[in-house]
Amino acid sequence: MSNIISAELRPGWRQADGSHLAALHLTLAPGWKTYWRSPGDAGIPPEFSWQGSDNVAAVGVNWPTPKIFHQSGMRSVGYAHEVILPLRVVGATPGADMRLHGVVELGVCSDICVPQTVEVNALLPANAQLRDPMIAGALADMPFSRAEAEVKSVRCTVEPSGNGITLRTEIDMPIGKGGEETVIETSNPLLWISEPKTHRAANGDLIIETRLAQVEGNAFALDRSGVRITVLSDGHAVDIKGCDG
Q1: Which stretches of the chain are DSSP H helices?
Q2: Taking a C-beta distance cutoff of 8 angstroms, is the pair 89, 100 a contact?
Q3: Which end of the chain is more exposed for a tag (fewer CB within 10 A), N or C?
Q4: Per residue in 108-122, pLDDT tens?
Q5: What is the DSSP string of 168-191?
Q6: How many domains does the chain have?
Q7: Contact present, 223 and 184 (Cβ < 8 Å)
């Protein structure tokens, strides 16, 4: 099934701070989708390895606004058709060319889900200055920050629930266009997070309720500063990091 997905590295351009802005360009066959960094219960999170790169100290992946998919009673978060993931590449030796080599493990789904491995390789020249409009477009499709979206407050409360907790979040923010859905992430990779229930209260606040449990059934404390909430509505998103209380 190697014809399901194709991948290339767009070499991009060198930035004023010395980092290099490139991108991973994924193209999917009709009817197939792949997943966002937090894919939901029905998805498979992508994994990146940059071993074998030359003069590369770090690679940061940027995630454009994803879509919500509902299929067979389950929800997933990801991309259909194609997606461009901007990459901020930091070199080990400033001012020199970089060669980026990546192996990416992806879940790709239609009526069935299959794991896919794509390998990409590109030279990132130190003198590259021309901005790639496709990468620039993906950057323009990034979620709004809390400040940009005029989020006034994020109040989080927790209550015991079985062997886990229920997290309730009340967000004072403008109402989005179309239906609003949310994704909850935490800084603890060992926490299972249920699909959130999201609605607007009578006072206009966005109310989100979800259940969290430690995957091995152990007790845990929730770091509220590590809670990350993405609000998705009609083609745009808001990225909110941390609770006020």
Answers
A1: 133-140
A2: yes
A3: C
A4: 999 888 999 999 999
A5: EEEEE-PPPSS-EEEEEE-S-TTE
A6: 2
A7: no
At 228-243, the pLDDT tens digits run: 999 999 878 999 999 9
Q: Is the whole model's pTM more than 0.90, yes or no?
A: yes
Residue 27's Cα: distance from chain center in Å? 17
Whether residue 50 sits in one domain with residue 112? yes
Which CATH number is 82's domain given?
A: 2.60.40.1250
Token digits of residue 98? 């970089």
Q: Which residues pair with 171 in a beta bridge?
A: 154, 206
Please name which of 63, 60, 69, 65 lies closest in space to residue 32, comparing C-alpha atoms: 69
- Only one residue has tokens 């994994």, namely 47
Structure tokens at 190: 């060992």
Q: CA of 169: how far to CAs of 164, 184, 227, 230, in Å?
A: 16, 10, 10, 12
How many CB atoms neighbour CB 188 within 10 A? 16
Place of tokens 């994924």: 26
Instruction: Compute the residue count for the chain.
Output: 245
